[in-house]
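Chain A, query sequence.
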Amino acid sequence: METNTHPLLSILNTQQRAAVTTPIGPVLVLAGPGSGKTRVLTHRIAWMLSEMDVAPWHVLAVTFTNKAAREMRQRLNVMLGDARTGSMALGTFHATCARILRREAENLGLSPSYLIFDSDDQLTVMKQIVADLGLDDKRYRPRALLNAVSSAKNELLSPTDYPVRTYYDEIVARAYARYQETLHQNDGLDFDDLLMKTARLFETDAEVLSRYRDRYRHVLVDEFQDTNVAQYAILKQLTHKHRSLYVVADEDQSIYSWRGADYRNIVRLRQDFPELQTHLLEENYRSTQIILDGAQAIIARNPDRTPKHLFTDKQGGHPIVLHEAYDEQEEADYVAREATRLLRAGYRHGDIAVMYRTNAQSRALEETFIRHNLPYRLIGATRFYSRKEIKDVLAFLRLAQNPDDDVSFMRVVNVPPRGIGSTTLGKVSAQAQNHQCSLYQGLLSLVESDGLRSRAERVLTAFATMLHQWVELREAYSVTRLIDRILADTGYESYTRDGSDQGESRWENVMALRAVVAETPGIALLDFLTEVALVADVDELADEVDAVTLLTLHSAKGLEYPVVFLTGLEEGLLPHSRSMDSPMEVAEERRLLYVGMTRAEQRLYLTYAFRRSWRGYRDSEPSSPSRFLEDLPDEALKQPEDQKRRAARPSGAAKPWGAESSRPETRARPEPQYRSGQRVKHAFYGEGMVIECEFEGRNEMVTVLFSNGVGVKKFLSGMAPMEPLADH
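Chain A, predicted structure.
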């Protein structure tokens, strides 16, 4: 039967068909976004089993999620039947390695019933190690030490191999050694051990490796660009003899280096398998050609990649919209208004996704969506006001307002950890019950009666003193200043910023909360807490509810939506400030934007703010649009406003475009469009009065006081949908 008419191939395009039917050997399929890579991988397995006389028990297919493994097996069962695929090994790297290690446990000195320690178990172990080593847990954060250990294992470094260049490295090496001893004593492994010990097993036991090479003669891997050093070592060891390795990858979508992923494994693959066959999948079934052209122009600037020409039969389409807002609040308002317009045009809420670089950016969007009565769902993150670090800071503030709040007291009495145990707290609780008072009053009573004498009790006394000071300062201090005092007194920054990207994200969330207060500098503490409670009091949406999706760019991979808004496209956010000193990290930030753009099927909006509250402070200098936007082709942008903005782009490819537009030196300042005291009407906020006009370079900024509870807003006069009203 010809391949063109074979039932397994009839739904495939020419490139997919070539990739599925290629001869057995080392094969790299470079698949662009939306090009059907999962279909190709599934059909390749089916083709091998049905047309290449490959026995299913000789096949190992590796995915990165359990969901992907389940879906692939279901598809294969439909195509070939359960009997044909039942003996095939299909699962994640970790599940596959766990099965191997259970079979070979005796070779490793493990019990076949070894335990797998989850993240909470790991943290408990490391906390105890920090205590046993007599270390300061504020300087040597247990979670930061765990991150260092995990990175070492992903690089196949044992405790004795760990490179020691600094005193901190020496502490990591000691903690790592003690950590492994503890796991061994408890007959346990962590997730990284599953990979590392399998790689070491294959490296040191030739007989075991030979058995698994003959068992898994054909290995297929999805999302190969997300593999780490340990995973690649396992693949190389397994396939060295039979040379049948089939991997699907897209180096342009490698965005997980912070989890150990190393897109350079594609380079290693080419070096270790010089006979490697490479197939490109370039036909896109998701996006319009305009969106693809914009995304390809962005990613083309990255080095060390295979050029691909993505094409689709969805020619033309809506131009990409590039929007500059004054600040993050106006940016959120624009997204909400545009989403509402699209809903009226026939789109569903679930057709729309709003993406951003950091979790902290969701705060302005969430509040605005609530105000607009737009249902939304957060993917891969907790609602802003439900995040632990936000609830902690709010609990401190509530105690400053009302120290008799027992719920808040119990939440933060040991945050950051102060070594206060249940026995000590039991004394406080008993005192409160005996005197029928709050926990705080019970604590003060014990302090006055000198009823707290142990070390933990002295710490609790210090907490009472600190809390009493906040109560006294709440009237004299602004809420912003009170937050700063609380963060300093508690050492919350060092507690939160544990050296991990997650720790940085948590601290950014705290600073985002501070920025909320900074937007209304004169607000009283009680009023602020009331407003937050009203915003936060929103029921979680059920999965079946039609809602706009809010998610980080890292969470967006593999998803698709008819309409996508990419927000916060500014220097310092995307690319993120943490990446600026590393060309490799900036390249990954560019890939992150590419992933976001290629999630869009029909409409794509790119937004950035002229000013943004960053880390809790209103920057004195304007923000610069992301350098990546400079590479967008003019013909892909919406006419005429966006191309006019592009025409004002400063010369010099090395500079982020727009970076100098606020301070030209030679051109005369234009005439102001508004004046103080003038009545105006805004398309969204209604009528108001101009209270101030000022220029920054050639940009006129207008401050307007609106009625109906809207308050004061600032706009760029040339961009705001606002017009002056006739004087009466």
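The longest helix spans residues 167-185. Residues 536-543, 646-667 have pLDDT under 50 and may be disordered.
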